[in-house]
Specification:
Radius of gyration: 13 Å
Number of strands: 9
CATH architecture: 3-layer Sandwich
Largest sheet: 6 strands, antiparallel
CATH class: Mainly Beta
Number of domains: 1
CATH topology: Rieske Iron-sulfur Protein
Length: 105
């Protein structure tokens, strides 16, 4: 069964920014690139560091772990650089009016 959880209002996250949310037992990094929102698991798969504290690589649709530099696709969660070799989870994001929602499986 899936659930939809509200994370924030659209205006709460500026383009190029990431923020951590804990909802329904999941730790999620919500990333805004332009007017689009992406959600991935907020734990680097290489070492347990918060991805939301890393750099948003908007042109590549990636987020980079601040500790060791692994970048992850915001689309697939796949690592794009070492040392990470395992993907992070990705979540469907829905924007309804001014609300940013995430679908939790």
């Amino acid at each position: 069964m899936t659930s939809r959880e509200r994370l924030c209002a659209v205006g709460d996250l500026a383009p190029g920014q990431a923020r951590r949310f804990d909802t329904a037992g999941h730790r999620i990094a919500l990333v805004r690139v332009g007017d689009d929102f992406y959600a991935v698991g907020d734990r680097c798969s290489h070492a347990n560091f918060s991805l939301s504290e890393g750099e948003v690589l908007a042109e590549d649709l990636e987020i980079e772990c601040w500790k060791h530099g692994s970048a992850f696709s915001l689309i697939t969660g796949e690592p794009q650089s070492l040392p990470a070799t395992k993907p992070v989870p990705v979540y469907e994001v829905q924007v309804e009016g001014d609300e940013v929602m995430v679908v939790i499986p």
